[in-house]
Amino acid sequence: MKRLFTAVLASVSVFSLLYTVPVKAEANMVPDYEMKFLIDSDKVLNSDEQLKSEYRDFFNTGKTYETVGVLYIETPEYDFSDQGWNNRIRIKEDSDNFELTYKKRYSIENGDIDSALSLANSEGFDISDTNYEAQVDWGYAKMTLSLSNKKKEPNKGYDELELPKKDDAIEILKDRMPGKLENWQGKNWGKDTLENGKKCGPVYYSKYAGNISGIDIDIEIWPVYSKTEDSTEYITEVSFKEDTYREALENRQIVMDALESNTIMLHEDSLKTQKILDAYLKS
User: Fold this and answer.
1) What gap in Å lies between CA 158 and CA 193, rounded to an integer?
2) Burial 10-32 (b: 16+ CB within 10 A, else e)
3) Which of 214, 217, 251, 254 is nearest to 236 (CA)?
């Protein structure tokens, strides 16, 4: 009887190994949406490089705006960008903290958002990962999936709107770096790569809050100085956010139509982050 029991147990064990139920994969992340449109700085900005009064009226902004400072850390070889990552430190008016953002981007081809989400899932970004916020950046013609890990760091000892110098910025970003980026191309890859980084910035931009047809929007004016050309390009961007694809699609058209009717919309996508990196790394 003991031999029979042992044989049955062995058979059950073999059966279990052969017919183990596979572990169900986690679902894809669920993104929200941010629409971004470039408008003609030559038309909408005054001699102080702020919104002209007629466009403050059009966008319902009033006269006030917020000043925000940003800097990025990237290597001269664009090691992070080549892997779809960037590292940013931001400071806002009257804030007691630096805002750190570690962002991973995936291209969205032919509007196929699900494929980009599935690729992100295969690389470890699924719905169970609550450390990252998923967002579809939707410009004039291009879509990008952005996964952002956001953290705060006290800015004690700094003046208002002051950003860290290079070595301090690197240490802050290393100290709070998420594990996925740290080990992206091998153990400690992110932190080791950051040691070779160069500071891109600071860039201080103006941010107005307004609305178009009841849709809350932001208007940002980014001055990007190129040392090699000794000139500043002003990038003016209109943006707004929606929770669902349906809302994004509907309100995107409303905002586009309003910008087109005023002949201020540029038929191209915003590349401000890339332009900032290039301005500092290629100088």
Assistant:
1) 26
2) eeeeeeeeeeeeeeeeeebbebe
3) 217
For tokens 């052969």, name the residue. 18
User: Which CATH number does 26-281 carry?
Assistant: 2.40.320.10
Residue that has been written with the tokens 């903290």 in this structure? 97
Residue 235: closest CA among 26, 81, 16, 42: 42
Whether the CB-CB separation of 86 and 273 falls below 8 Å is answered with yes
Residue 160's pLDDT band, with cuts at 50, 70 and 90, is very high
> HSE of 135 in the Cβ direction (CA atoms, 13 Å)?
17
Q: How confident is the model at residue 35, as a pLDDT?
A: 98
Query: In the predicted model, what is the mean pLDDT of residues 133-150?
Result: 98
The reported pTM is 0.89
Looking at this protein, which amino acid is placed at residue 158?
Y
**pLDDT value at residue 24:** 58
Binning pLDDT at 50, 70 and 90, where does residue 12 land?
very low
The token duo for 228 is: 């090699």
What is the Cα–Cα distance from 142 to 140, expressed in whole angstroms?
6
The mean pLDDT value for 52-57 works out to: 98
Check residue 208 and give its pLDDT.
98
Asked if 106 and 116 touch (Cβ cutoff 8 Å), the reply is: yes
Q: How far is CA 129 from CA 18, 25, 126, 202, in A?
A: 31, 13, 6, 31
Both tokens of residue 133?
A: 């916020």
Residue 245: both structure tokens together: 């694809």
Q: Report angle CA 246, 247, 248 to the nearest 5 degrees.
A: 90
- In our burial notation (b when 16+ CB lie closer than 10 A, e otherwise), range 209-234 reads ebebeebebbbbbbebeeeeeeeeee
